[in-house]
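Dear Dr. K.,

Following up on our conversation at the group meeting, I've run the structure prediction for chitinase from Tuber magnatum. I'm pasting the input sequence below exactly as I used it, so you can double-check it against your construct before we proceed with anything downstream. Let me know if the numbering doesn't match what you have in your notebook.
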Amino acid sequence: MISFLSKVLLLAMLTLSRAAVLTRENLRARDVESPIITALPAAKPGTSGQTVAYFGQSGKLGVNSLSKFCGSPDIDIIVLAFVNVYKGAGGLPGMNLGGYCDTKIPGTGLLNCPEMGREITACQAAGKKVLMSLGGESTTVNSLSDDKSATELGDNLWKLFGEGKGLEAKRPFGGALIDGFDIDNENKDSRGYSKLISTLRAHFKTGTKKYYMSAAPQCPMPDKSVGEAVYQVDYLFIQHYNNPVINRVEKARQLQSVETYGRIRIIGAVRVCEHGHSKYRGN
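The predicted structure tokens came back this morning:
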């Protein structure tokens, strides 16, 4: 499996309700050299494609600002990676943003990132959605073994990144409000994620704006790390890069897995090769 900290992840975004045939004609690829792990739109004629980008975990690569990417018309959703500890120092979640913000909030594993908070607000003003991702491959997350731990995490996330009250002094991005959360669990233990999502959605209903949930499952269905939570999210960012590539031999099985997901807003289809270069295979 390719390490998340070194791979270049491209997620082709396609708005769907059922399965789709992905070919060379509606997929395109390029190498990406930026701190944003980028996704490229792969929409058929007549559909509305979107582009998602994971920010932070590929190293700075000479670029030190989130806001530099917010003016790009090619990016619709930016996912900040990661909240990689669910319950750590001080009983609160912990974070790793790959060097873009290193200062810890005393007594916690949270990061003090007021400048990134201002950049988040600027991104949103430019029409981008900004999500906070939970998990990642290189992670020290605690499993959500019961409803209590899932509820506690959901409550804390809402206070730290959303509109909840009670942890104002611990908020990583100050007064900036993210637009939702992404689940990128890769530990093959899906316990608690359905409860986490329902807890967050209950909080979303009390908010002053619309919030979103996404998940990044592996392609084969069911996904052991995300489980039934795939049916509770608004977006799916499917990880084809760690799975057999879509080609003539694998296409039927891959598309069967995609169709099994049922209600799908976004689907990715890419391959990351051995040296980190992204290539597509079609018909």
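Two things stood out to me. The CA atoms of residues 214 and 235 lie 4 Å apart. The beta strands are 36-38, 52-55, 77-85, 94-95, 129-136, 180-185, 212-215, 235-236, 271-272, 278-279.

Best regards,
J.T.
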